[in-house]
Each structure stands twice: as structure tokens, then as C-alpha cells.
Write a structure and sequence with these properties.
This protein has eight helices and no strands. By secondary structure, it is mainly α. The protein has one domain: Arc Repressor Mutant, subunit A, CATH 1.10.10.690. The longest helix has 19 residues.
Length: about 160
């Protein structure tokens, strides 16, 4: 299990253990757990570089993916202070499902919903609840993790 998987499992209270500071009744139900875990993984894991032989954008034009890409999306949406609160060591600011939809964009929300099997409104509600905690745990002491540590499918070039 990779770092991202471990952090997501801990944040969601996997294996019957409540997440730190989270009451047992606040844990995600088993189906919800797998749906939100799939969505969080899809959102935060860096995407693998295109396979050899495929046309790829030059590195200078390639959009960041994973956590780096998410940070960029929050900055572009004017919510840099929100995501910085999750990365930093202070109190995490909340985000509403609607703010999250606007930040991620409808295409991403649709893709995450399809990949996870969760209805969009349920997915956004769960993401707005768990995403701050997951990012907070991925960034201890305000330090971003090495992207290569986040996803087993990621290949550094």
C-alpha cells in the first residue's frame, strides 16, 4: 500500500478504526468508503507519463496532475487560501460542495463520479468533508510530498 492509500484509509477510518479525532459514527460506510477512496485516489495521484510512441505535449506545456494540479486549480479559482490552510499547520478551512464543483470543473466531477460509482452530489459532499483531512495528512509540517511517493503508477522522468 502506498503513502496515498495509507493516508486515505486513515482519514476515512478504514478497518473499523476511526480517523484520529473523528468519532466512529462519522466514518464512511463500506460502499461510501470505496467510492470516496477511489475518487480521492483519482484526484490526488499523479498521472503516469504518456507511453512511448504517443504524442505528448512538451514538458513545459504539460499541465501538472495529482496534488500539484489540484493546488493549481485552487489557485486559479481564487481559493488558494483554502488549500494552503490544508497544507499548512494551522486550522483547516472548510469548502462547500458547490465551491469544490466550481474548482474542479464539471468534467472532472463527472469523471470522478463515473470512476467511483458515486452520484455527483454525494461525491462532492464526501470530498468536501474528507479532502481537507487527506491533504492535511499528506503534508505534515506544511511540506508537500514527493509526487513519486503518492502513486504507484507514477513514473518520474
Amino acid at each position: 500500500m502506498g503513502m496515498l492509500d495509507e493516508v486515505i484509509a486513515a482519514a476515512l477510518g478504514a478497518k473499523g478504526q476511526p480517523a484520529q479525532g473523528q468519532p466512529a459514527q462519522g466514518r464512511a460506510a463500506p460502499d461510501q468508503f470505496s467510492q470516496i477512496a477511489a475518487a480521492l485516489t483519482a484526484l490526488l495521484a499523479p498521472k503516469a507519463a504518456p507511453a512511448a510512441g504517443r504524442a505528448a505535449a512538451p514538458a513545459s506545456q504539460a499541465a501538472p496532475t495529482g496534488l500539484d494540479g489540484l493546488i493549481d486549480q485552487f489557485k486559479q479559482s481564487g481559493l488558494e487560501d483554502v488549500i494552503n490552510s490544508w497544507i499548512g499547520t494551522g486550522q483547516n478551512q472548510s469548502i462547500s460542495p458547490n465551491e469544490l464543483r466550481e474548482t474542479l470543473g464539471q468534467k472532472t466531477v463527472t469523471d470522478l463520479s463515473r470512476q467511483s460509482g458515486a452520484p455527483q452530489d454525494d461525491l462532492l459532499s464526501q470530498l468536501s468533508k474528507y479532502l481537507p483531512t487527506v491533504i492535511d495528512r499528506l503534508t505534515p509540517n506544511g511540506q508537500l510530498p514527493n509526487q513519486a511517493d503518492l502513486g504507484s503508477g507514477y513514473r518520474s522522468r
